[in-house]
């Protein structure tokens, strides 16, 4: 008895219309539909793998007013990949005024990455501090409690709490590049109070090692290895904690610290940090111990 073709076989033999083929192409290559300069830029970037050609078309899209928000951001990302970082920074600074209010936050995030890549740490720190001020003034996320973020093609929701901790972590790392380990310690501790994770714990441990506070550093790193910090099951975080502990054990405590680097945290910024974390702290004293520590040092250290 002859078997009738399955539904799947019948569907596979059906001709696909040209419009349907275009739809499938756009989905597979993640290229928007249309024929404007922005679409051509994305086609050059994602399909033809021609980043230089993509930049030319992104410029044309910006000049033509075609999806300027996305064109400027995407062009800066491509420029970063080509090590044209300084050019990307100048492009964002020059043309972000053409972009909508909703695009400014994502442009700031791209700008921070660009500053980090080319070693412009002071500008990175200032922009991170500016983003924190926006949070404690209620201006972040356009006043909403969450925002939609995208990573590796997937969308997910980010809360103000998570964003605050992320920015503090980036600020702590920037302070470390300036060898301002005391300021880095302050913001890492605040980040851990808000939304702790193993990666920031390792960075905090490194800050403490740099200040020769070996017992404190050991306690923080052992919390990672014993699983008392969220994310401790990440093998990379555990390996890093182990490496830092080995480094710590190889060091001899010096007779005393000298040439302490100033915190360089003004009173307004310290008060802002206190405000943005107060609602998430398990206990809410009038002034957190971490900031009492800052106050004690402020008169002694150069800012």
Automatic annotation (TrEMBL):
Q: What compartments host this protein? A: Nucleus
- GO annotations of cellular component type: nucleus
Repeat (TPR) residue spans along the chain: 165-198
Q: Name one Pfam family in it.
A: TPR_8
Q: Keywords in UniProt for this one?
A: Coiled coil, Nucleus, Repeat, TPR repeat
Q: Does the keyword Zinc apply?
A: no
- Which InterPro entries does the entry link to? MS5/SDI1 (IPR044961), TPR-like_helical_dom_sf (IPR011990), TPR_rpt (IPR019734)
Q: Which family does it belong to?
A: Belongs to the MS5 protein family.
Q: Give the matching PANTHER family.
A: PROTEIN POLLENLESS 3-LIKE 2, PROTEIN SULFUR DEFICIENCY-INDUCED 1
Q: What is this protein called?
A: Uncharacterized protein
Q: Which species is listed as the source?
A: Carnegiea gigantea
Task: Please spell out the taxonomic lineage of the organism that makes this protein.
Answer: Eukaryota, Viridiplantae, Streptophyta, Embryophyta, Tracheophyta
